Amino acid sequence: MPNNRVVDRPIILGLVGDSAAGKSTLAKGIVSILGPDRVALLQSDDYHRYSRSERRRFGVSAPDPAANYLDILEQHVCLLRQGKPILKPVYDHMRGTLERPVLLEPKPFIIVEGLLGYHTRALRDCFDVKVFVDPDEALRVKWKMARDCAERGYSEDEVKLSLERRAEDSQAHIHPQRTFADIVVRFAPPETQPDECGARLNARHLLRPTLPHPDLGPVLDAGGKSGFRLALARDTDGKPVDVLDIAGDIESRRAKAVEDLLWSLIPEAHHLRAPLGQFIDHAGQPAQSHSLALSQLLLTYHLVKAALGHFAR
Amino acid sequence: MPNNRVVDRPIILGLVGDSAAGKSTLAKGIVSILGPDRVALLQSDDYHRYSRSERRRFGVSAPDPAANYLDILEQHVCLLRQGKPILKPVYDHMRGTLERPVLLEPKPFIIVEGLLGYHTRALRDCFDVKVFVDPDEALRVKWKMARDCAERGYSEDEVKLSLERRAEDSQAHIHPQRTFADIVVRFAPPETQPDECGARLNARHLLRPTLPHPDLGPVLDAGGKSGFRLALARDTDGKPVDVLDIAGDIESRRAKAVEDLLWSLIPEAHHLRAPLGQFIDHAGQPAQSHSLALSQLLLTYHLVKAALGHFAR
Fold first, then answer.
1. Domain count, chain A
2. Structure ipTM
């Protein structure tokens, strides 16, 4: 990674959001830019306190903080941040069981992905960049249905039941963490035309002033017809934010221009240029999305800058 | 525990020695004095890197440092010493498998028991009191045979094979740790008469000057015929040590006098007086040994004194 890196401990990115919010898909692009040998991925689902059958027996849901070893998650993220290895617990999503732990060595970048990463102050303090992934709810339900049936051995009815079971805890514990994020990323279907494949989702980034965001001036348009625009707005809580909208149907030429700008803003990482925006569509086929690619690149921008000591803490 | 305790972090006792050296039996008495709610037990076998079948496949034995997560053991002991909980790995001795980890909360006293606790400098630095348990080898083999067949599902032939497999690593990695102990405890059968039950084993404590040992003057005898004597000697490495010999056939009256003295030296713990020296003999029956009781009490003396800040580090 950047040869002139000045921060000699791992840089920690949080990707927090509800189940099937798109966290792993965002993470994949970031890993492909920075290089798989430079990024360690920590999934906080591994810190579930109970197996699936125990959760049912005890009547607790996965997003309930009491159903997770959050103090141990915090301890482990702190240790990784200090450059130390951890013995990471393992939750098997397919079988719903807790398995033998595995050694996880720190790498220059660490992505912590999960439901409750910003639940406590001590946890939040572990991160260099905090992202909350908050897609359109109907979209998330669709993603969850596809993923849990294909990869986690659930039936459609079981996913529906799981969504019902978790709804209250999601609302009570996951959603309130949105307020602690430096960036809120929201994918939503275009309003004007159907997007069965998911390649033309609009991406909206709320940019909070807790991080120095890149100067996007050169590519921003006044009118906003070309798919990439920044506007001042009030967040749902009334607080001021910059809203960056990336249209799902942004022209390839235009997307390329924004990509070029972002790469030019992190010349330290320019040699890492990698294909971005790739995802598996709901038919199980590989696909590509400009708004996803640009989102991945924007998040990586912050990691590279953090490694360069641009927002020293 | 002592109401006037001045050290507000857990006090850590190491009980290191080969498999079936008698570590757990010593620990049991200490736990019964200090109270099970005040002592956490950490068995370093839980930090095995491989399952039994993996060890066979890879051709490594349990006492091989490379077959253990010693860096994680060190990290966990340090965390406990700081009063922090850990998510402890679990090795199932019966099945020879690694299982889901469990939460271990620190307690005022922590006993770390296992094969390789003093293998690295950083590990050794975690302990307040370091004991090496080094019984007569024939006795250890007998104990291992009895324990592994009764509690760990091995056949006699399997235990013999396991002893052979481990012999070289035991010699290379376990025995050299003896030199780092503050106290070396050695149980051996009496020379003059058979001791089938194990209730009359002699106990020899090498007392190194790395800890302030109790003043046993009042009960020591010049002649040494009454079962409890202290003598200056050279250790196997030529270095000077105090050698405390507790005869297996010490008279009950005499053992009681020594016990009384030791309890009087730790008045802070006097209200904790508990039945000591209990063990399960090789016929599976509960039995009692004076030399074991006095050994347990001597080790506890050091823990109580450490909690009172008597050897501030």
1. 1
2. 0.86
How far, in Å, CA of A244 to CA of B276, rounded?
Answer: 72
Residues of A with CB under 8 A from a CB of B: 69, 71-72, 75, 79, 84-87, 89, 97-101, 103
pLDDT the model gives residue A193? 73
What pLDDT score was predicted for residue B270? 56
pLDDT in tens, B160-194: 998 998 899 999 999 999 999 999 999 999 887 77
- Residue range of the domain that includes B293: 11-307
- By Cβ distance, the residue of A72, A89, A103 closest to B69 is A103
pLDDT of A258 above 80: yes
Q: Does the beta-carbon distance from A72 to B103 stay under 8 Å?
A: yes
Using a CB-CB cut-off of 8 Å, the residues of chain B touching A48 are none
CATH of the domain at A241: 3.40.50.300
Give contacts of B79 with chain A, Cβ < 8 Å: 75
- pLDDT of res. A222: 46
**Over A50-95, what HEC string results?**
CCHHHHHHHCCCCCCHHHECHHHHHHHHHHHHCCCCEEEEEEECCC
CA-CA distance, B284 to B295, in Å (whole number)?
22
Buried-exposed string B116-134: b where 16+ CB fall within 10 A, e elsewhere = bbbbeeebbebbbbbbbbb
- What digits encode the pLDDT tens for the residues B18-50? 999 999 999 999 998 888 999 999 999 999 999
Nearest to B72 among A75, A87, A98 (CB): A87
Which of B71, B85, B100 faces A98 most closely, judged by CB atoms? B100
**Is B87 within 8 Å of A97 when comparing Cβ atoms?**
no
Put simply, the answer to whether A101 touches B84 (Cβ < 8 Å) is no
> Does the distance separating the beta carbons of B100 and A97 come in below 8 Å?
yes
d(CA A90, CA A69): 12
**Closest by CA position to B19, among listed B190, B179, B135:** B135
CA atoms of B190 and B198, how far apart (whole Å):
10
CB contact under 8 A, A98 and B97: no
